[in-house]
Amino acid sequence: MSPRAKAAVTAAFAAALLSAIVVQQRVDIERAAAAEPEQRTLSRRVPPRASTSLPGTLAAPAARAAPISAQAPLPSSLEGTEADGSLEADGRGRLVLGPGVRRYFEHFLSAEGEESLAAVRARVVAGARARLPAAAAGEVEALFDRYLHYRDAGRGLRQGEGLAPEQAFARIAALRKETLGEEAAAALFADSAPLDALAVARLALAGDQSLTGAERASREAALESGLPPALRAARLLATEPLRLDAEEAAMRGAGASADELAAAREQTSGREAAQRLAELDRARAQWQERLSDFARRRAALEQEEPVQSAREERLHQLLAELFSPREQLRVLALARVPGR
Fold this sequence. Notes:
The protein is mainly α. A two-stranded antiparallel ribbon has the order 1-2. It is extended and about 75 Å long.
């Protein structure tokens, strides 16, 4: 890769990292497991929350728009949901800080755009008052205003260009301390900051051309081992399905039989999980056969029918013949069939 191309890749990554951290899109340690829920049946464990008590009253910034009633109907994206995160008070009635507070904020902020920020703030405050003593609820309100300042300032940082990834991460870390306070910043992002730092360090290793493959792998393993135990365990759990899939792909490439694959699955995941995976394999194979059949009949139809409107009508008739209404949505997306 040329120096110019490397610089472009680095700059693009820095901008992406800066944007991702600013909007609190936490590095999802379980994304691999969630990408296809039925892929593995391993249990999901949530790492313990790192928490600390707020040492003093937070000074609220300038008042925002007057809050509206929190009893207004929920926006559609929040209907049927429970507030994510957690709000707790310690024995002195003070707010306990931790990642759960940030997740509580982000739960309501996810509806921003569907309702005003004043309405979002009203829901945050009302929820805090319903769950916490007065002093702790007041700390939630003040901290939320500071969190909003952090997000607003972060949007400005996203416009910067030319930052190396480590510079981008350092600027975000500094912004968190400046707007939230050092203690609150460390507590609210205790679950994501180590992963952000790991991503930056791994990128630096990837760009170090002086390292051999073995040296790079060794240093990456050392970085992983430096994570807090709870995060390290959660990452191992989340990436286990990918590791098992890679092993199975290698076995298939080496010519392993179905019985050998089944035995390997039973050894690593247990008999019940192996049986469910076998059922999933069969379901996938049947689905692929149906898609292939549809593709063949679609190709023949397009050759037979020259008129586009008639061709599309017959194509939708074919969809209705072969697939359920729910399955048709998947086929429409996969096969790019024109909608009606």
